[in-house]
């Protein structure tokens, strides 16, 4: 229940960010560059006239009578007067940044919340797609066997003959950047492990007594595959779903680090970790801790929740 609470909290935070309730202004430069945690944020904005000092800063020192040399000299007085009317904006540290600021003075806490929107979406949706494809392919191959099984085994061997990370990078280099592209890349390349396990489960269950009984009472092939056998393999799918969520969040980090992930206008835990690698060299650790801790807590909670659900749904443990 504690893990379920943590997962529900992250999902609620992600939905709130997607709907614009929180962290909608994550890209605003609200603090100084590399502000340490709980140090400074932009507060009230004081608006004052620029005055003669501002005019001097804009136009430089008072012009001398060099009209014969500088043809713009007669305009200096007019420019000083116009510059004096321009309002200046000053920031005062009336608030704090709980998790510090990044290179551009953006709030790391808001970046972390906004980054969860991309990372969790990629992890969950791509994992669901991969598990669904692997389950359907494995069920079809294991149940029917013969040439159908040979065809899926050939497809499986083609995908697994290429190193997984190179396969992802190849798809990412060909396709355009974007959230939907990352989900499709990970989902279409990550089904092989689920397929192998589901194929073995269906080969094992296809000849059991309850399946033969269903055949004897006239159940169709689809009913036997998905109504009778599939519920008895649900624990395998849940474990694979948990593992793929973790795996795909890591893959998103790698793609974003290499510039093949989300566009630069978006933020994710992967882009934050990529930025933090440079910041860590100069001792700015808070963005790394924020993104890494958030990802670790979510991954741990998902794993523990999946284990509990597997134990509850596994018919052999009832």
Question: How would you describe the overall organization of this protein?
Answer:
With 318 residues, the chain is mainly α. The protein folds into two domains: 12-16 and 103-317, MetI-like fold; 45-91, no CATH class. 65% of the residues lie in helices and 3% in strands. The protein is built from 13 helices and two strands. It has helices at residues 2-18, 51-59, 76-84, 108-144, 146-160, 164-174, 179-189, 192-206, 209-216, 221-229, 234-257, 269-281, 286-313, and strands at 45-49, 87-91. Strands 1-2 form a two-stranded antiparallel ribbon. Helix 4 (108-144) packs parallel to helix 8 (192-206).
Briefly say what this structure is.
The protein has 318 residues and is mainly alpha-helical. The chain has 13 helices and 2 strands, in the order αβααβαααααααααα. It has helices spanning 2-18, 51-59, 76-84, 108-144, 146-160, 164-174, 179-189, 192-206, 209-216, 221-229, 234-257, 269-281, 286-313; strands at residues 45-49, 87-91.
- CATH level 1 name of the largest domain: Mainly Alpha
Order of helices and strands: HEHHEHHHHHHHHHH
β-strand percent reads under 5%
The number of helical runs is 13
* Overall average pLDDT: 79
Total number of beta strands: 2
Instruction: Point out poorly predicted stretches.
Output: 41-60
Q: First CA to last CA: what distance?
A: 19 Å
Shape: elongated
Strand order of the largest sheet: 1-2
Describe the SSE topology.
Blueprint: H1 2-18, E1 45-49, H2 51-59, H3 76-84, E2 87-91, H4 108-144, H5 146-160, H6 164-174, H7 179-189, H8 192-206, H9 209-216, H10 221-229, H11 234-257, H12 269-281, H13 286-313
Antiparallel strand pairs: 1-2
Helix pairs in contact: 1-4, 1-13, 2-3, 4-5, 4-7, 4-8, 4-11, 4-12, 4-13, 6-7, 9-10, 11-12, 11-13, 12-13
